[in-house]
Design a protein that fits this description.
Blueprint lengths: L1 E10 L2 E11 L4 E5 L6 H8 L7 E6 L2 E3 L3 H4 L3 E4 L11 H9 L10 H11 L15 H13 L5 E5 L7 H16 L3 E6 L2 H7 L2 E6 L2 E7 H4 L6 E4 L3 H8 L3 E4 L3 E4 L4 H10 L6 E4 L4 H8 L10
Parallel strand pairs: 3-8, 3-9, 6-7, 7-8
Antiparallel strand pairs: 1-2, 1-4, 4-5, 9-10, 11-13, 11-14, 12-13
Helix pairs in contact: 3-4, 4-5
Amino acid sequence: MIAATGLTKRYGSLCAVDDIDLAVHPGDIYGFLGANGSGKTTTVRMLLGLVLPTSGSIRLFDEAMPKAAHQVLPRVGALVEGPSAYRHLSGHTHLSLLDGMGPGGPRDSRRRRIADVLDQVGLAGVGSRPVKAYSLGMRQRLGLAGALLRSPELLILDEPTNGLDPQGIHEVRDLLLTLNRAGTTVFLSSHLLAEVEQLCTRVGVLDRGRVVLEETMDTLRTPSGRTVVHTPDIGRTLALLGDRAEQYDDVTVTVRAPDPAALNAELVQAGVRVSALAPERRSLEQIVLAATGPSADRVDA
């Protein structure tokens, strides 16, 4: 669906995207993660042919981009760098103009299709209101509606929940899951790790222009090979386990032990009181922080 090989973008001496490979398969919900300034938006713009790469290749639907853009892009819905709109026009009229700018569906079905996508994104009641009266979250919803106009096979979205309140984020997540179940492949860039963890089937992590991790969420959710033990006998536990105890506080010890049952038996036999223990499963936030360095926005004295 998306295949990028050796993708690089330089602006003078600045290397915004540095020799990255990406593979997005049909049916994926692919989360493209990275801090501000990591190169996510530049990558998205190259995928869509809005920016030419310095080197490397891109294929969408197994067609070379941007050479095949005219054939490929009608099958793609996109929202990049936040929504833009004709502020003096209504949301409905804005979408009508957007639909007419390229090969889309039949004109006689345009009104129905616009009504449908406005309803999908929660703007059915305000489609006649001028866009200048929209909140940031409403404009974000309108941008998403524009991406859905042509019933795309592939959605490429850059921070699609930016400006939305928690209820709006929940609604967009449900919408993307519904679209994916109906056959739409979704590629979304985001820095909202909790949302990506709930939504995506695969993730790629970008750090300072380089992909430092690409994996399925199922793999990332597997136990880490460590066990978290809750016990009031911290000192006795540390003395027994030695260097197998990798982290601890007043009530828990994280132990390098892939078999919780065997560890529990060892502790109990030694007289250690165990109130609870379980395999450690790292959150997506922990995994991303381990794979990346300090924030690109950080400025130290």
